[in-house]
Write a structure and sequence with these properties.
The chain is α+β, with helices and mostly antiparallel strands and about 300 residues long. It is about 30% helix and about 45% strand. It folds into two domains: about 1-160, Nuclear Transport Factor 2, Chain: A (Roll), CATH 3.10.450.50; about 175-295, Nuclear Transport Factor 2, Chain: A, CATH 3.10.450.50.
């Protein structure tokens, strides 16, 4: 997942940039030669010059106003070699401009080439890159290019067919869901801890079905009320969520997955501790289905 995020950092749109109004000098100098070598090293998946020339506090922008760190920039460029083969420059020119205000930039105009490992498409993409110097170090890097091919290659990579040996009976195609659904589930936990049944009930769908950890099933809001209202009145409850994730499948079904450690103390002071994994289906902002898996917590 993290690797994919690095790749996605390189998929922004175009932004415009305006430098100083006039230049004092444009030349092909040692800095332009270094940048040309750095770009050629990129095609070999060699990033030593990137590491050495760029400051750790580099400000990098990849067709976006969002700043990218030096580490994410390099990891993103490394990922190109997973997405493409035969990466090379059709042509590449570099030159250094020293502006009247004293700032120094090396600019690159180039034609990038590569064949997609997942789409098989051969690409030729023009690009413009600019590197700002402070002494002998790069402090700012700007990249402008058409991200269409990169988007297509990422999509093909993430949707490639893998033989898992099994076919899911419900769904195997999930994506991260609406975080508001997490809030619904956690508000129910808070209501339970506060022994506030009415607050809990407001978030429960009339057609609720709960598969309890002991194998029993609760169906409908009336059965839910009969069981949980008295339960909340008679137990002190402590719930410590460890993980929550909202997910959605390709049919639009929305679920929240929750891992917790829980304590239930009765009127006589006897405490029961459990760890639980629960899945909550959300419909119209309310919980309509719950699947519970629990075990005693003996720690």
């Amino acid at each position: 997942m993290k690797k994919l995020l690095f790749i996605c950092l390189l998929v922004g749109g175009f932004v415009s940039a305006q430098g100083p109004k006039s230049t004092g000098k444009i030349e092909y100098d040692d800095k332009a030669e270094l940048i040309k070598q750095m770009q050629n090293d990129y095609t070999k998946n060699d990033f030593n010059l990137f590491e050495n020339l760029m400051v750790d506090t580099l400000r990098a922008y990849l067709g976006s106003t969002d700043k990218v760190s030096k580490r994410d920039l390099i990891n993103g460029f490394k990922s190109h070699h997973q997405l493409y083969k035969d990466i090379n420059w059709g042509w590449l020119n570099s030159e250094t401009a020293t502006y009247d205000d004293g700032s120094k930039w090396t600019m690159v105009w180039a034609s990038w080439k590569g064949e997609g490992n997942f789409t098989g498409t051969k690409n030729t993409i023009p690009g413009h890159f600019a590197y700002q110097w402070k002494g002998d170090k790069i402090v700012t890097a700007l990249y402008y290019f058409d991200p269409t091919s990169l988007r297509a290659e990422i999509a093909a990579m993430t949707s490639q067919s893998i033989d898992y040996g099994y076919e899911a009976t419900y769904s195997s195609n999930w994506k991260i869901g609406n975080p508001e659904n997490i809030k619904v589930v956690l508000d129910v936990q808070k209501g339970a801890e506060s022994n506030d049944f009415e607050a809990v009930k407001k978030l429960i769908h009339a057609d609720i079905i709960i598969g309890n950890g002991d194998g029993t099933v609760i169906r409908g809001i009336e059965a839910f009320t009969n069981l949980f209202e008295s339960f909340l009145q008679n137990f002190k409850i402590s719930i410590n969520p460890a993980v929550w994730i909202a997910v959605e499948n390709d049919e639009g079904d929305e679920w929240v997955l929750l891992w917790t450690s829980e304590e239930y103390t009765d009127a006589e002071g006897k405490t029961n501790k459990i760890t639980a994994q629960e899945s909550f289906q959300i419909v119209d902002g309310k919980i309509i289905r719950v699947n519970q898996f629990q075990k005693p917590d003996n720690d």
